[in-house]
């Protein structure tokens, strides 16, 4: 299927879409983060998030919208490190996180557009490297130039930390 035309907007500008995407995020990753909830994810997507370059404060989210202004997917840029609870390992951010595309809109370039948007945003604000953690999509990210950094365990489930170098 061909990529569709889309616009990327701050998630807080479309609070009505937050519960749907929070549910999709929870269904995809709730088993990795037992302390998470649909309610917390909804709150995070609705909140006016911090656009700070200070990693301790960085927390941004965006929705991809189609030509009819309907949300298709969401992505986040977070400053806090992902923790490997079993080993108490914390890796520094920033992190590409929370990427989920509505099942009806997959394989249309939405995820790639969101990834490109976040990597460009991170580069523009001056970050040199961006990380992510994935349970199943290693080859998807490798095709986009991401590199495996290490294997980790989240709630006893194997995952892969990947990174991309952000060049000017």
Automatic annotation (TrEMBL):
Alphabetized Pfam families for the sequence: Acetyltransf_1
UniProt lineage: unclassified sequences, metagenomes, ecological metagenomes
Record's keyword terms, sorted: Acyltransferase, Transferase
CDD domains: NAT_SF (cd04301)
Entry protein name: Unannotated protein
Sample GO molecular function, one term: acyltransferase activity, transferring groups other than amino-acyl groups
Keyword set includes Transferase: yes
Alphabetized InterPro entries for the sequence: Acyl_CoA_acyltransferase, Bact_Acetyltransf, GNAT_dom
PROSITE patterns from the UniProt entry: GNAT
Ranges where the N-acetyltransferase domain occurs: 8-167
């Amino acid at each position: 299927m061909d990529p569709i035309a889309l616009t990327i907007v701050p998630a807080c500008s479309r609070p009505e879409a937050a519960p749907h995407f929070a549910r999709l995020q929870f269904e995809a990753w709730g088993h990795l983060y037992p302390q998470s909830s649909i309610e917390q994810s909804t709150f995070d997507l609705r909140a006016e998030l911090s656009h700070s370059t200070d990693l301790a404060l960085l927390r941004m989210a965006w929705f991809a919208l189609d030509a009819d202004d309907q949300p298709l997917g969401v992505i986040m840029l977070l400053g806090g490190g992902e923790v490997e609870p079993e080993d108490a390992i914390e890796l520094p951010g920033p992190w590409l996180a929370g990427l989920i595309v509505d099942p009806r809109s997959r394989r249309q370039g939405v995820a790639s557009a969101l990834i490109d948007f976040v990597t460009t945003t991170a580069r523009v604000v001056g970050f040199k490297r961006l990380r992510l953690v994935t349970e199943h999509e290693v080859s998807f990210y490798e095709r986009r130039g991401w590199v495996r950094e290490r294997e980790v365990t989240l709630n006893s489930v194997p995952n892969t930390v990947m990174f991309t170098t952000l060049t000017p």
